[in-house]
Design brief:
2 domains, 4 strands
Length: 125
């Protein structure tokens, strides 16, 4: 089911939520101003990711968050430029993190061997 994930500003607080009727939620949360929204079939997962990311700023027992400017801009950008739940996840996590770590470790090991260790053994030849 296609729904909207939205960011609404109400004073110094931000509401991050989801709805299937964006006009109704704007009226319900008035005088809040709709800052950004994303129409998607993965609204539940995207909302969970966003609320988890900003959980430290959440006002208890509500959908409101006290975001600083950089957090606000980050959330807004994600809603404006993303299309799937994978766009909301960090690149360096899970398998990508493990493969990147191994590749960097191998590259550093090869550099250390060829720059530092090989010259020492070449002295004995």
């Amino acid at each position: 089911m296609v729904e909207y994930v939205f960011l609404i500003r109400n004073g110094e607080l931000y509401n991050i939520g989801r709805t299937n009727n964006l006009e109704m939620i704007q009226k319900k949360l008035a005088p809040g101003i709709l800052i950004a929204s994303l129409k998607t079939q993965e609204s539940k997962e995207i909302l969970r990711i966003l609320q988890s990311e900003f959980s430290e700023q959440r006002i208890p027992q509500s959908d409101y968050f006290r975001l600083n400017k950089s957090q606000f801009l980050d959330c807004k950008k994600k809603l404006e430029t993303s299309r799937t739940k994978d766009d909301f996840k960090p690149f360096f996590s899970g398998l990508n993190l493990a493969l990147t770590f191994i590749a960097v470790w191998v590259a550093i090991s090869i550099a250390i061997i060829s720059i530092l260790i090989r010259p020492i053994f070449d002295q004995f030849n």
